[in-house]
Amino acid sequence: MLGGGSGERLCTPSTSAGPFRIFSVAGFQNRANDIVYCPPIVRQQAQHVPEDSTAIIYFGGDVQDFPESMETNRDSRGYMKYNLENSAILLREAFPRSHIIVIRPVRMEFKTFSCFDNFVRGNNAGVPDHTPMNHALQHLEKLLQNLSQRLISIPENEILDQAAQAAAAAAAVAAAAAAAALTLSNATVNAESNSQSSPGNDSSQDMDIDILQVQENVTVDADGAVIFPIVGSDAAELVNNVTGNNGNSHQEQVNNHQEQANNQAQNAAAIKMASTTTTSNNIEHQNNDCSTGQTRQASVVSASPAATTSGATATVTSDSNPLWWRENLNLDKSKLVLIGFSKGCVVLNQFIYEFHYLKTLTPDDSSMCRLLSRISDMYWLDGGHGGQKNTWITSRSLLETLTRMAGMNIHVHLTPYQVQDDRRPWIRKEEKLFTEMLRRLNAPITRHLHYDNQPANLMTHFEVLQAFCQHVHALNQQVQQHQQQQQQIQQQQGVGGGGINDQSASTNNGSNSILEASEEAK
After folding, report:
1. pLDDT for 250-293, tens place per residue?
2. DSSP state, 304?
3. Would you say 20 and 38 are in contact if contact means Cβ atoms under 8 Å apart?
4. Spans of biased composition, class Polar residues (predicted)?
5. SS3 for 310?
6. What's the pTM?
7. Using CA atoms in the order 420, 426, 429, 434, what is the torsion angle rounded to 10 degrees?
8. Which domains does the chain have, with CATH numbers?
9. Quick count: other Cβ atoms within 10 Å of Cβ 334?
10. What is the DSSP letter of 392?
């Protein structure tokens, strides 16, 4: 089971919130990228305009692709849990109030090497050739604009029908797994009773139902039409993953999965009711009037289980429109959080080059000022590529420009796989220069080394994604606890309800700025 030995599931299936595949989203000039999108699962109470929302932009690493592509590649198959769609779900659980946008590389050479040519030039292995200006920021802005239009144009009933199908499929798979687990449980108990085997020889594992077998997708072609995937039965594969330590643990697991199946079935029925009450495909229905809203009361679906267990204590706000996330959707006007993992960090590095170009070499060009001012955080997650230099930016002039970006927080998350590999010592040296120079320049930067007590290997490299998300959860919990304590103090001091409401509103906004959360926790 993945997760750095934490024993926690990588992610849990959703029943109503994506991920959606949007193919060939147009960007700058003739460039286009496929995108995996997940809407927020928690609605911010104070969100009225696009500027109040946050979009998480993720650039993945080598190997990461659509699950069906990874399945056909021998080298990629072992990392299926970190496909682009699962990564989107994982990020959604860490940022439940944000739009999740995973940008697929324009090329996957040999189904292995991620090549982000639309953002940064590179060779056949995706090794970057950074230039002062490759219009990467313009491409990102255009992608966000056109993605917003594409999402709004999808007819509501098609999204709701797809969600209902996915929830029903998930419920069926969970029910089949529960039934199979019960059968295996009885057989295991009998076998153990007959053989009287010692617990030390028990090779069983915790039940782990792979999200790939039950997750739902909405695939949209270039014309905006939804393509429904064929739902196959993976119950047999699930059965192979279902084992336990004893009869009691099996029964508990069976009960849990039976309850999950029942809940998913109820959600499927609720979503299906909503889809059947939709009377028109007109895209103007995204701004539901009162009568349409009343017909969709039954379609309100709670957040995925992960939303209540991942550290975000806020619950989904009831709303008559299950597609509330499309209201006033204008992603290029949202606050932006940029995340690069492994090879994906080359895109963030190219952005730094273009920050410098726009701020220093063409200071009179204000065309990109709006986009730059909306970038609040940049995350480098275990950056690396196949070249022997320029894994991290070490130019003082470029980093000085990055430091002068008002309101931009910088975060570095690492594993021994990249920074303790003696075969690639330049990565360690460059990262040290990057971090130390930014600190000397008084940049708002945080640095975390994960799994430093474990052997450096490719699996822990991928697991930095989960470690990063768990770090986000922990910070959010600390902030929420601090704010709850402040509320209690105010209540004891007889402060009126207005101050408490202000604290509650700040709690809703807290998840979107992790650096602020860290400072608040201190």
Report:
1. 455 545 555 555 555 555 444 444 444 333 333 333 333 333 33
2. P
3. yes
4. 281-297, 501-515
5. coil
6. 0.69
7. -110
8. 20-154+328-480 (3.40.50.1820), 156-280 (no CATH), 482-521 (no CATH)
9. 25
10. S
